[in-house]
């Protein structure tokens, strides 16, 4: 029995070693071991019962996965092969885009080295996506949905962000919005470079155009505004919610006048 279990574990590891570079692309041994540790932490001793699949395999072989079938005649979705999706692991990076009016899902995609698939996420997961920039994530709880129009997407129930040297938790010095208010009133005498701010979001603007720039305004408590100009972060409009407290890092004290000049 023990030898059989060891053989099963070896076969699982060989299969994973073959599949992982296809999904991740060129990677280091450290990146592979981080994934392996993260998976084992998520599924404990059952990890050998899980198989890593790529987005391309998921889309090309839908019949081999749990598929939630939706149609106009049957609003209630029904499931095929329900057991199998709970033994499949997806691994990729979330990409967020500004929501379009005709978007049928959520403006979120999961992509790996083989392709991308749309994702449907809950509001709580959407809020967590703001912390996943450039991070690879492990999905052990998801299901594939296909409707009669040909739209395929996955419903994400839970994901785990892989830790690396860049996103490991670290101590940072932050200012309250009261401190920032004082700093902005005296920024001509208090010479400060980049700052980190903690505060509760009061409201979020639409993406607006000023001259040739697209910007997003985020108002924190005590009338502190964060001006987002980098197009890579405009999708925050769809991820952030009022009455949420967050830490914003690497901000440059300025004025709206300077931004608009």
Average residue pLDDT: 79
Strand content: 25-35%
Estimate the helix proportion, in percent: 10-25%
Which runs of at least 5 residues are low in confidence (pLDDT < 50)?
A: 71-86
How many distinct helices?
A: 6
What summary fits the major beta sheet?
A: 6 strands, mixed
Question: Which geometry do the CA atoms define?
Answer: elongated
Order of helices and strands: HHEHEEEEEHEEEHEEEEEH
Structural classification: alpha+beta
Number of strands: 14
Terminal-residue CA separation: 74 Å
Query: What is the CA-based Rg, rounded?
Result: 22 Å
Spell out the blueprint of helices and strands.
Blueprint: H1 2-24, H2 29-43, E1 51-52, H3 55-60, E2 67-70, E3 78-80, E4 88-96, E5 108-112, E6 115-120, H4 123-128, E7 137-147, E8 152-161, E9 175-176, H5 177-185, E10 195-204, E11 208-210, E12 213-220, E13 224-228, E14 245-251, H6 256-260
Parallel strand pairs: 1-4, 2-7, 6-8, 9-10
Antiparallel strand pairs: 2-3, 4-5, 4-7, 5-6, 7-8, 10-12, 10-14, 11-12, 12-13
